[in-house]
Amino acid sequence: AQTVTQSQPEMSVQEAETVTLSCTYDTSENNYYLFWYKQPPSRQMILVIRQEAYKQQNATENRFSVNFQKAAKSFSLKISDSQLGDTAMYFCAFMKHPGGATNKLIFGTGTLLAVQP
Amino acid sequence: GAGVSQSPRYKVAKRGQDVALRCDPISGHVSLFWYQQALGQGPEFLTYFQNEAQLDKSGLPSDRFFAERPEGSVSTLKIQRTQQEDSAVYLCASSLVSTGYGYTFGSGTRLTVV
């Protein structure tokens, strides 16, 4: 079974600074996807960034980038130039490669990020 | 619609009461998921539909939980004889097909059982 671990329950960063959120996972699969989702107080889970395991290049989306270390099973999220609107819960999630009956997401327990003015 | 719509947004139920939670996915989305998110935790998978077929219900915690999607669009999650441990946010998500691009989530229903 796959598991996702986020060891930082809370993080704080000053506005305009850079912060890195950690995520490790455990799987015996070779092909899979990894995601970071943001959940603001509105509760809606918003996709921040995704990484395909077979791609060595780290994914980047504007101020958000990941450091994907497949051998170490590590998938950290770096947020550059932090903004007040980045304040939210951040969840790391794993999905097996599509092809099975259920492509469910397996989530970590989340990291609460507070951006301070 | 433009997004995944869930109703009600909040529900307070007395212990033992039956509740029904509704999910309206994005039009044309084939895949639909229900997740349960306890306070301070990440979402946990409950069940999966492909059109009207419930292909996986392995995450449903007990036989008090029942989900349906009779016409392959709107889905209802029903909880019978609610108990305090059922208190959580119930999230619905949909996608066009079952892909590795993640899903679009709704804003959830917060269920409080008193």
Summary keywords:
heterodimer, A: 117 residues, mainly beta, six-stranded mixed sheet, four-stranded antiparallel sheet, 0% helix, B: 114 residues, seven-stranded mixed sheet, globular
Describe the 3D structure.
The complex is a heterodimer of chains A (117) and B (114). Chain A is mainly β and 117 residues long. Helices cover 0% and strands 51% of the residues of chain A. Chain A has no helices and twelve strands. In chain A, strands 2, 5, 6, 10, 11 and 12 form a six-stranded mixed beta sheet that branches. Chain A has a four-stranded antiparallel beta sheet with strand order 3-9-8-7, with no helix packed on it. In chain A, a hairpin with a 4-residue loop joins β8 and β9 (74-79). The model of chain A has no long low-confidence stretch (mean pLDDT 93). Chain B contains no helices and eleven strands. With 114 residues, chain B is mainly beta. Chain B is globular, with a radius of gyration of 13 Å.
